[in-house]
Amino acid sequence: MLNLIFVVVLSYLVGSIPTSIILSKLVKGIDIRQHGSGNAGGTNVFRVMGWKWGVLTIILDAVKGAIAVVVVARLYLDNFPFNNITPFDDFTLVQIICGVAAVIGHIWTVFAGFRGGKGIATALGFLLTLITIDMLFALIVFTITVTLSRYISLGSLTAAVSLPIILVIRENVFDVEIPGYQTILPFVIGLVLLVIYTHRKNIDRLIKGSENKISLFKKK
């Protein structure tokens, strides 16, 4: 049990690394939370510092999620302390728990007064290791939405909502056997609800037409 707590806490701390805050201070000498939307995430870095730094922030945030799943989870050496009723083996279940912990760390980072990003990139990083094909389809949805609308928040929301739909279609329409489908689907739906919650202000601005668009060619 102590070993499980250790990897969960370590995953949370990895997810808590405030990438956008560190980069904004190193590159521009600013606190990204005091500019733009005030959010410590890749989208705000994209708006305030330009697309190159925004993309770098998103990649680094995704890497945090991947590290939690691929590296930190492997530090779990005990037998799972609870009855595992999922179709996943114990290690995969630990990977999922570590990935979720990293996302929570990104959203509520202990290193920045519990004011972090919105969890999209970190969730992307760890889900890519578990449902790679489905996530690639969701990334296509994100890319198309952002290209057409120039709203990163809308792209993030659309991609997140599309993910469980993609899972359902691949499993039930195209008869693709997705490992642990019955467990991963409700888990993904829960993650989507969390993403919607963290984007509630963006949704309000999108409805009111006051959400900021991004320019792919903006130079900072």
What does this structure look like?
The chain has helices at 2-16, 19-27, 42-49, 51-70, 90-107, 120-127, 132-149, 152-172, 181-198, 200-208. The chain is an all-alpha fold. It has one domain. Helix 1 packs antiparallel against helix 4 and helix 4 packs antiparallel against helix 5. It is globular, with a radius of gyration of 18 Å.
The percentage of residues in β strands lies in: under 5%
Q: Rg from C-alpha positions?
A: 18 Å
Domain count: 1
Report the major sheet.
none
Low-confidence runs of at least 5 consecutive residues: none
Distance from N terminus to C terminus (CA atoms, Å) equals 48 Å
Q: Which short descriptors sum up this protein?
A:
220 residues, mainly alpha, 10 helices, 65% helix
Question: What is the topological layout?
Answer:
Blueprint: H1 2-16, H2 19-27, H3 42-49, H4 51-70, H5 90-107, H6 120-127, H7 132-149, H8 152-172, H9 181-198, H10 200-208
Helix pairs in contact: 1-4, 1-5, 3-4, 4-5, 4-6, 5-6, 7-8, 8-9
Give a brief description:
The chain is built from ten helices and no strands.
